[in-house]
Amino acid sequence: MISLAGRDILHAWGKFVFTGIGLGLLIGVTLVMAGVYRGMVDDGKALLDNSGADLWVVQKDTLGPYAESSSLNDDVYRAILAMPGVAQAANVTYLTMQVRKGESDVRTMVVGIAPGALGATPGWPPYLVAGRQITRGHYEAVADIATGFKLGDRLAIRRNHYTVVGLTRRMVSSSGDPMVFIPLKDAQEAQFLKDNDALWQSRRRTEANPAFNRPGVPGLLDAVIASQSSNAFVNTVLVTLKPGHAPDEVAESIRRWKRLTVYTRAQMEDILVGKLIATSAKQIGMFLVILAIVSAAIVAFIIYSLTMDKIREIAVLKLIGTRNRTIAAMIMQQAIALGVIGFVVGKITATFSAPLFPKYVLLMPFDSIAGFFAVLVICVLASIVAIRMALKVDPAEAIGG
Amino acid sequence: MSGKGIHIESLSKRYGDGDTAVFALKDVNMHVAPGEVVGLIGPSGSGKSTLLKCLGAVIEPTAGRMTLGDEVIYDDGWKVRDLRALRRDKIGFVFQAPYLIPFLDVTDNVALLPMLAGVANGESRAKALELLTALDVQHRARAMPSQLSGGEQQRVAIARGLVNRPPVILADEPTAPLDSERAMAVIRILNDMARKFETAIIVVTHDEKIIPTFKRIYHIRDGVTHEEAGEGREFE
Prior knowledge:
Chain B: It comes from Zoogloea oleivorans. By secondary structure, chain A is α+β, with helices and mostly antiparallel strands.
């Protein structure tokens, strides 16, 4: 038996191909949307992986440091280091800001990393693609290659300038902003540093406050001003564990004895994926549903139109003894063919357009496979209307009168 | 009378019930022998199409008896379970317009019926080509329907009606869209094929040009048929 659907498609291939291209662009957008979500999740996981930490110690009752702000004194890490099972504990600060790059600026996450040994201190970039790690206590930076900085470039953070000594790759925040690593002390200062006018105004207010400027207490004013001009806080303490120690047990121990909030890797992933990007995921999910409905409507309309164009031929086919299932199969095969053409066009579109998006778009093979089957299901469902109409055609319509 | 060909006795078709009942056919009797071409003529609304649909097993009569060849297909109810297979294997249709499948070439348009009946593609196409040759359109075997003239399309449609060698062909105004010359050519072909394949052919027509060619004519008016001898002019 010949393929009626195949012959019809070959006969009107232009209509099918151009409709398939239109549908394919829609499917391409759908795949990219899924890729945007995957990219967000992957950014979050990359952030956790690259931190090199087993535990995140943050301000009590916060979801810090990525989902909420968290502030800890920078000497807390010493107490944590003394806890059983803790191998390393290092202060880290995170500050999302615009870093000046020549005449323009670039949105980055500035990470303050504590001095330490490469590979042993959590928070450091685990590998470089060019240059070296930070070796000085001030004014050196390692930048993600996505920032556009090159080795030797000068970048400005607040009032200080830093020289880029190393470049890394795929070091991004949970929102996809590339990271710039600078020494912890500089980062603490950057979080707090004000412009000259603001400093002058602050000092003037403090001097005018009789509580701080007592004639009988020399040195008090200077001490207060000094305390206002320094920052002894960090956002989190990253902890690595000694071999053989369970993260949950060490985390519970720190919670109990240091009265701090501690997250394991799994918990932090839940926060990033389940809370930080949950709204974005829902947004993307809504778009995917709408795009699926629009795709189904388009396929249904096209198949319905193609079937309407053949209503007399269908009546003749039924009159001369064609089985209903042969006619239904013809319509369904055409819908599936349309879906396959659309998916191929969509996949090609998504693959070539993904790198052009400003944020990371991760096209997963599983999503493509799931998308392919979803397209097939949508096409089959969309063809039902046309099939119902075709099966209702009375073979007597082929006979006049 | 029974035997080969198609034979109908007291066939009636009623639409509606009670006070609103309308009889489209009233005790119609008809016999068409194998190899015979008869005309069925009548004004619009006389019941021609209803009779054709009953004969074609498309709609169910209300009462009567129909015999196709040696097989009783209707006797106050269908005696055949699979009407679709009956239409495919035992009844050929030729329509007012050719209604060829536009996305199949000429050969496959004709070969489709045997393929639907489960005959292998190669054998079906061989049958189709044989008929196309008989109808002198074998040179257009690979052409698409849109590439054929009106006369060629109608010949292909006749080939499709004949390909399963049905004992009866129902032709619904097959010459309506054709000029006189082509209309006469189609009628000549139908007569030739009827003789060659021992097929009973019923031609519904309004076409004054071809009416004199029939040896027997059934007039139908208000659902009642009257048989009369035709002139049989062209084919004596």
